[in-house]
Please model this.
Amino acid sequence: MARKKRRPLVPEARPELDQFKATVMRNQGYKTDPANPDHVKYEVAKELGIPLNTRYNGSLTSQQAGKVGGNIGGNMVKEMVRMAQENLNKRQ
Model:
């Protein structure tokens, strides 16, 4: 059974989230394609030695998949926290 793609709470935010992902990963030193921001996951997987491909990935372990997604999502969360702290400091 294929998993449904995760959707943001506000669907209209998808383009901005994709742009944010591309910016964060570019700042981490990865090549990003503005037309296809999800492509960075293949570069991350390659760097980590995980055999992620564009078709079937059912042979990946949860740990392998988590390393790829965690790397991307973790960097995005770190950047959001940094931005929030910066905004709080501006208010004081």
Observations:
- Helices lie at 14-27, 40-48, 62-91.
- The longest helix spans residues 62-91.
- The radius of gyration is 15 Å.
